[in-house]
Amino acid sequence: MESPVVPRPTGSDRTELPITTSAPVRRERRWSVAALCIVLAVVCALGAAWAVNSASDRTKVLAVARDVPAGQLITSADITVAEVSADTALTPVPASDKASVLGKRTAVDLRKGGLLLTSQLAAGTGLGEDKQQVGVQVKRGQSPAGTLVPGDRVLAVTTPAQGSTNGTSDDNAPSSVDAVVVSVSRPDASGSVVVNLAVATTDGPLLASRASQGRIALVREPRSN
Q1: Are the C-beta atoms of 100 and 155 separated by less than 8 Å?
Q2: What pLDDT is stored for residue 9 in this prediction?
Q3: Can you say whether the dihedral through the CA atoms of 39, 41, 42, 48 is positive or negative?
């Protein structure tokens, strides 16, 4: 016996089934991932550009390596080189000017870790009114080899005159003079250098007289730590 045939619904009695597909969802996700990748790439590029610009804006300047009281001559041990970001509000001394700073006198107290500013240096030679500057030509062997730097304290010792073994013949004159190195020239062909010394006004003429005779040897005093 055959089963009865059920008639197919027609008209308003027919139920319409929605047709769906997942393709649009997958396409939307792909565009979202692509957009996110583009944003990340732009952010990374901007970060790299900022890092490069920041590095290029840094400059080498002089900084204070240890506390230095006002009125003292600056030595190489007092300063160091630091790298900082360029700032128009600050005027630190460029690292390339280090040689010109050595031997200058401080106008104020310098504190370790601070940047060295031009305004912190005394104007002029830094000798002061109670000091005179005397140039002394020192031959090889008459000073510590290659160790004298501006700011070093030395003794300018009188050596014996030619044909004498008793040292200085100056009556009641000291055999040595306290001095501070202002500058040191480059050695000439024979190894001699000219050392500019700051001495008391009472010792300037005596030291100049002995230096003109080539009778001065320099002894460096211990450097402070």
Answers
A1: no
A2: 57
A3: positive
